[in-house]
Design goal:
By secondary structure, the chain is mainly β. It folds into 4 domains: 87 residues, Sandwich (Immunoglobulin-like); 102 residues, Cadherins (Immunoglobulin-like, Sandwich), CATH 2.60.40.60; 110 residues, Immunoglobulin-like (Sandwich); 44 residues, no CATH class. Helices cover 1% and strands 39% of the residues. The strands form 10 sheets. It has a 4-stranded mixed β-sheet, with no helix packed on it. The protein has a 4-stranded mixed β-sheet with strand order 20-27-26-23, with no helix packed on it. The protein has a 4-stranded antiparallel β-sheet with strand order 28-31-30-29, with no helix packed on it. The radius of gyration is 42 Å and the shape is rod-shaped. The relative contact order is 0.10. The N terminus and C terminus are likely disordered. The structure holds calcium ion (4 copies). The site of one calcium ion has 9 residues, from loops. It comes from Timema californicum. Keywords: Calcium, Membrane, Repeat. InterPro entries: Cadherin, Cadherin-like_dom, Cadherin-like_sf, Cadherin_CS.
Length: 414
Amino acid sequence: MPRLTKCYPRAMTNLVPSSCQVIENSGYGADKFTMVRNNDGTGSLKIVQPLDYEDTLQSNGFRFRIQVNDKGEDNDNDKYHVAYSWVVVKLRDINDNKPQFERPNIEVSVYENAEVGKSLETFKATDPDQGGKSKVKYAIDRTSDRKRQFSINQEGTVSIQRNLDREETPRHQGGGILLVLAQEGTPRHQVLSSGTRGLTRTGGRVAQEGTPRHQVKVLAIDDGVPPKTATATLTVIVQDINDNAPTFLKDYRPVLPEHVPPRKVVEILATDDDDRSKSNGPPFTFRMDPNADDIIRASFKVEHDQKGANGDGMAVVSSLRSFDREQQKEYLIPIVIKDSGNPAMSGTSTLTVVIGDVNDNKMQSGAKDIFVYNYMVSACSQPDRGRAGGWELLTWDKTTPSCSGQNYPLLLAT
Ligand SMILES: [Ca+2]
Ligand SMILES: [Ca+2]
Ligand SMILES: [Ca+2]
Ligand SMILES: [Ca+2]
């Protein structure tokens, strides 16, 4: 217990005290203090019970009696050797309380297209120090709002300061361990689900589940020196609006061999960033863009298969004629994909079909980088088609007909 003070009333100074004590039940606060005798013969008042200015009974202070005698404790009744005094103790306020929120956890739900300036909720905090008159200021802990999407005014009202975007909002992850099991030979587009919250794998794409939400930390700071701070949490659940059009699930790049009869070229799946549980994503519908040029429309067809991709819908792209790579090496097919939102969003993605060379080496599907490679031809004969340094020779594009050991640009592909 801290020593409060070392003092003796003037009436006692002619005594050389051998004992001193607070008289029990002598006044308010008598139970909160005790007297101790110091080595130099003086006495000190010690605090033995917690004091609290915010306790309305205590804020006016204490008043009780102490007694000193100079002949040992046996002589309490000897009036020549005993002196009494009233002691008045006043409490001084310190800033020992942080503000208190009426509601420290509030959850709100808002659509991602809510306008800037919209008020979400009002927090109220009070502080018991300074006789309840301590002023509280509000702020947002910016580590919980790094994009500064929220603001708070001095009435404690939180508003939207910058546009929310559900698709850019962190997902709340459920607890527990997630295991996704896939069997060898599982169709590529099969949806694997763990049955718990967590990850879903669709056609090779990993999507995070969970509700997009912000956890905004609201601070209430009092005006003490030093100030004390309390924290509340505003959970902002961001609801989906259908504001994304579907796109190709991946970068399809099918190779169609030249000089073959009409055939199926590729199956196309789509993806959509919006909330599929709100029907803002699949099922998708596919069609060739009606603005595709005549050559494309005469060369390919795009059929919608609504049962494809486990009911998400897919496009089947087929050729309608045969092609000659010498004529044109690739075709760009614009495909319109529409989602199921209300209103629906649709977007056009472009499929590149590469016309492949027919040769002994079977083309690898999904060939990617095609670039010009300088191949040194040292003799007068053209090089045979085949492999050169690990690259497959696609086309021999002779630009100079002369025969004098020079560089011929060659088109190669992996
Ligand atoms: Ca305070
Ligand atoms: Ca206080
Ligand atoms: Ca959205
Ligand atoms: Ca959508």
